[in-house]
Amino acid sequence: MQKGPKDRFEQLVETADALIVSMNLRGYITLFNRVCEEVTGYSQKEVVGKSVFSLFIPEEDRAKMKKWFKQLKEGKPPEYPPVARWKTKTGELRVARWRNALLYDDERNLKEIVGIGIDITEHQRAVEKLQASEALFRLLAENAQEAIYLYSFVPKPKFDYVSPAVETMTGYSPDEFYAKPELVFKIVHPKDQAALLRSHEDPRSVTGPNEIRWVCKDGKVIWTELKSTPIYDEDGALVALQGVARDITARKETEEEMQRARNLAEFLVDLMAHDLNNINQGIMSALEILQHDPSFPETLIERLQGALNQVERSAGLIDNVKRFQRIDFEPIQLKRMDIFEPLESAIQATKLAFPEKTLLVTTNVKKQQHFVQADNFLTDLFFNMLHNASKYDRSDRVTIDVRASTSPDKSFLKIQIMDQGPGIPDSEKPRIFSRLASRISGVKGSGIGLTLVTRILQRYGGEVEVANRVEGDHTKGANFILTLPLRRN
Amino acid sequence: MTSIFIVDDDENLHRAYQSLFSMKGFTVIANAYDGAQAVTIFNQLNPRPDILIMDYRMPIKDGVSATREITQIDPTSKIIFLSADETARDLALQAGAISFLIKPVRFTYLIKTIEDILHDH
Questions:
Q1: Residue A291's closest chain B neighbor by CA?
Q2: ipTM of model over 0.90
Q3: pTM to 2 decimals?
Q4: How many CB pairs below 8 A link A and B?
Q5: Cβ atoms of residues A437 and A444 within 8 Å
Q6: Which of A267, A272, A275, A285 is best to mutate for the B interface (most B CBs within 10 A)?
Q7: Is the per-residue pLDDT at A164 higher than 70?
């Protein structure tokens, strides 16, 4: 049987990929297609004969939608854009864009209003999200202390965006950059022109932040750190650069100040180490001439020896100051080290430093027994401890015992350096590692050795403390306890 | 008798070494006050000194450059560096010095070093 126009209309309504709803002139639903069913969750059976306004239109939109419906019926152009919100069966609000068709009867009287719509809810949500994201970006960009920029190369070089911070930084406003994109190359510091050009022509060659100087409107020079991301088209051609410029002038000034201080320290230490030790050599040689001169009075030999010791002490102090400087400036690169060799070297060096004394060092440290994370300052650490013990022990025979043991959880190595010198009173113990507190039991020392010890231990993540060798009696000697992070096999 | 050539820009040290070496029975056969002078004098010395005592920082030519030239002239030269600048140690040894001592050095230690070198070579 051949289908009539009504059948064909219904078939079209059912197969169309659009929302189709038909209402009579009172707004009661007469037709509700499959797509409407899918979107709203209602079946045609549930909605036919019901008011489209009370069923689907949210209460707050109802008045304006009724007005719009009335205008349609009267043949007037509707005042509202044909976008309407409607409620699904679950209460979810969806948005659709509508076109309307008016159906007339044979007497040309308006009979029905057909709405044909497209659900644009997802699109609408994406637009809202994008708008929110853009608003957030703008809020951040406009208030950021960093200058944010988007620079396009095609069709011709120009700034698409420059945030207001650029004016605080350079004195030039975003509008000036928009009007004259070449301004960026005019205000770059002459020494950084090549670097800026390279970052524009071949951004791939710039790895990491680019430090660039600019000459501001008032003539002041500032440092910035540029972090640019190149944007390429599908053919791989560079089309834009987006990025952030951060003012790092304060940091660069601090770095330069530190470098100046470092250079000055290096100069002073070099001057002291070289020139003073040359002077020390002169004094030492002159004293040794007297020492070997048969006519030199026997009664003054002891004083002469004292003077020679003082020269050696002066050289030792200079040596420690040089080490101080190295500790501060040398990068920390620790490696696994056996403590045996550095300890042995330090014992031999201490014996050489006190030729007039007999130095007896006993130890339980064996080769390949204890490993720590350290560097070449480890020998200096042991030497300073042993030297200190030998210096303050006024007897000709100096006895030192070095005991190493691991902590119960095997994470630290404890090294005890026990001497039989005058010891350290409890009241003095907290102060002895400070450079300024150097007077112990009436013996005046430079105090730098123990401070150096503390600094070396800080490099290794270790600590030092002092106790009595014999509990409760400081006069029987000191026990310096070093703790070092332990590295086991 | 051991012969010594002293190269140092400090005149006081020349005088002091002279006295000390003579006490020990060594002979100072030449003195130079900079590296260039050291090379010139060394070229003229015949016989060559047993030992050269060399400073590092000196005017006109430093001790490392002078050592390089002297060891080219005579590869058997025995040069002991005596310097307050320990950063020059590696350079000096690479240039051909046999030993590097850091000032101030006790004379007895210097003598022992010289004797060891003469004994070993």
A1: B20
A2: no
A3: 0.55
A4: 54
A5: no
A6: A285
A7: yes
